Amino acid sequence: MNYPGGIKKNIITIKDINKDNINYKNRGMNLEEDLNITNRYYKDQGIAYIYKKPTPIKVVKANFENGKRVITEAYYSEPSTTDYNGIYKGNYIDYEAKETKNKNNFPLSNIHKHQIEHIRNIVKEKGICFLIIRFTSLNKTYLLKGIDLLDFIDKNQKSSIPFNYIEEKGYQIKEKYLKRLDYLEIIDKIWRKL
Amino acid sequence: MNYPGGIKKNIITIKDINKDNINYKNRGMNLEEDLNITNRYYKDQGIAYIYKKPTPIKVVKANFENGKRVITEAYYSEPSTTDYNGIYKGNYIDYEAKETKNKNNFPLSNIHKHQIEHIRNIVKEKGICFLIIRFTSLNKTYLLKGIDLLDFIDKNQKSSIPFNYIEEKGYQIKEKYLKRLDYLEIIDKIWRKL
Question: What is the pTM of this model?
Fold first, then answer.
């Protein structure tokens, strides 16, 4: 941001960050909002308990002020797990939610290397694991099983997943009123052991 | 910390914080270390996938420096969930690990109100949920089921759980060599559905 007199303002507040999100990640906020509403509904109805994990932050420096620890230098770490996890019918459930403006593919740069490892570990231990991908330009949201994500990555040396693959292997999540994005309806159908 | 000339140093680095932990929370570091070793063993052997969640931090201010977001003011939030969770035989597993120097009781101030709510939600949804409590002065570590913690809280207006209650209702975790604190051995015995 440039100010009169050439002074460059580089201090931003959380309000600015949120504003920033509204400008650049509008649909992302909506997907998160939709999932929060859905998960609150699941919890209130005793259907499932699924929650968002804290954002990983690496603390470098901290002060003591009035007996309270204030962090004065820290950085957002690359996520080593996914955003959401919890319990559904006693089972471990875990997913990452992402959106893209692309119409023809989902860029794999959205999923970090450590997150792929995390998904691999969950699949291995028989947890319920998937991605929720929203194509904002198409206004369509899909559930893609973790195993189908891994299968694509292991068999292809590509930087993105074609929309066709997601449409074929994935399951479209219909938007509803109370259960905004009722992804458990799909889980009921496709996870045999439930 | 007071320095010669009366200058008060209140800037501490992570190295200092770790040093601080060694001085004041020695046993706590050991319990965490023991659990990390145990969980790594479980993971490597394909027994279970259990990991530590990120510490919740509330970010207040952030700068941009060389295109990177640097957090310049943040605070440790009160935890709303537990420290560890993961999958064991497909089931959701979740626990909080705490240690006390007390010999006769475990102070409930160690467990925050939101964490109690979290435990309640897990028990309701049939997840495997417990506390791991180490009595450092007695050199004994116990597993106490979430339901027994809730039962105590709901029936008593006390600020701590007597050691007797934990000894009676809980299960002592024996220290081993590779599986340092083999708490899953206890879970196998007490969780009927496994």
Answer: 0.81
